[in-house]
Amino acid sequence: MPTSQHTRPSASTPPITPQTATHVYKFMSSPVGTLKLVASDRGLVAILWENDDPDRVRLGLATEAPSHPVLVEAERQLRAYFDGTLKSFSLPIDFDGTDFQKAVWTALLGIPFGETRTYAQIAREIGKPEAVRAVGAAIGRNPISIAIPCHRVIGSNGALTGFAGGLPTKAYLLGIEGR
């Protein structure tokens, strides 16, 4: 997956202006609150929660572009998911993270609609069976909530555990999927 470079302005770096933004965004209302959809020209970069911690997913400067084709398609597919008519997202994805995070997020994409996996199962799947806690941390930084289904990962005892959108939202999403 291509990655983007993010730099912070310093005293010797000119400030970033909206004309140099690498991301575009739009907001959409949903049954789980207002979502912020973020894209690049390569694909969907993030689906962020209404009260998301700004340090959870760090993005560069973005400008509002509600008619950007990736954002329009992401909203269409999310609406179909919430309506119960979409079981699999087919969006171009442009996530930025470490190789380990990308391996975890790619494993999440393999969890079928209506099924769940444990953190330990994901750790084994990526060939790092001892890295259960690191898998949990990577899942917590999943930038593309819902479409990269981190809500389908549960505790080894079957309990719902940590979720950036909140446990009631996780339960709601699993409910859409018949879990």
**Annotated CATH homologous superfamily of the largest domain:** Winged helix-like DNA-binding domain superfamily/Winged helix DNA-binding domain
Q: Which CATH C-level class of the largest domain is it?
A: Mainly Alpha
Number of helices: 5
Order of helix and strand elements from N to C terminus: EEEEHHEHHEH
| Biggest sheet architecture | 4 strands, mixed
| Tally of individual domains | 2
Q: What do the pLDDT scores average to?
A: 87
Helix content: 25-40%
CATH architecture of the largest domain: Orthogonal Bundle
Instruction: Give me the count of strands.
Output: 6
Specify Rg, calculated over alpha carbons: 16 Å
Shape: globular
Class by helix and strand content?
Answer: alpha/beta
User: Uncertain spans, ≥5 residues at pLDDT below 50?
Assistant: 1-20
Note the beta-strand portion: 5-15%
Strand order of the largest sheet: 3-2-1-4
| Terminal residue distance | 31 Å
CATH-defined fold name of the largest domain:
Arc Repressor Mutant, subunit A
